[in-house]
Amino acid sequence: MDLTYSTYLKLDQLLKLQEPRSSPPEHDETLFIISHQVYELWFKLQLHELDRIKSDFQANRLYDAIATFKRVRTIMKVMVEQVDILETLTPMSFSSFRDRLEHASGFQSSQFREFEFTLGFKRADMLRYQQAGTPAYDMLLRRLREPSVVDCFYDFLAQHGVTIPAELRARDVTLPAVANETVEEGILRLYKTQPDMQILFELMTDFDEGFQEWRYRHIKLVERTIGSKHGTGGSLGVEFLKKSLFLPVFPDLWAIRHQF
Ligand code: HEM
Hints:
Number of helices: 14
Order of helices and strands: HHHHHHHHHHHHHH
Distance between the termini: 62 Å
Bound molecules: protoporphyrin IX containing FE
Shape: globular
Helix content: 55-70%
């Protein structure tokens, strides 16, 4: 049989994957399921692209890194905008099927956590929300233990004469990336002398800001939908989520902005 649009995209399988649990059916549960599935697909693509950025950084491919950062930045903007769609869900409508979610929660999104870990935003304690022994858990553990985009960024900067202090070189890669003044001095010099580096740093900052925007929009979505209720994953809900709001992925790029 000739390949078709549908067989290439495996639409038969894909379109069977939306199964509301409410009975009688609650109209909006379909929106809830599809929105989350779409986000998981975006996470999958983002991880694919971040892996490329890591190898571009290591191999000192500046223009490829620029092109891919432009892509992940643009996907991030779409991810932020898409929150609008779920915000058409009213608190009343959500509460009509929320019980059916039981303890299922975004906490358990292994791809979201992979996304954070791959970037350098590592929170090893978040592994406790994953089921040990599953392929998703093993993958997450691998992401925790391997160098992040920030670590590969250091490799890239070193190839452009930036001093990467020994303590950063020898750092425990399972810990979150932290700002470092020596690295910042080097970034500042490149910012001021090399226009192509400036483009890269600005795209990285766009992406970082975009991720913080996503966190903000998610919190507001949660607040308007469940208010001060606890999350299905057992956290305090909004109060818990606020803790990671405004935490940057690339702290060095934010720390230098008053120095121009
Ligand atoms: C009505 C819509 C939504 C509500 C009420 C909601 C609620 C919550 C709450 C309360 C938490 C805190 C953890 C917990 O105790 O469960 C959480 C975490 C999370 N949610 Fe949502 N959420 C919604 C939509 C979404 C969407 C569309 C996504 C897209 C992937 C998402 C992804 C996540 C992720 C990844 C976390 C973990 C965040 C972190 O650890 O920093 N949520 N959500």
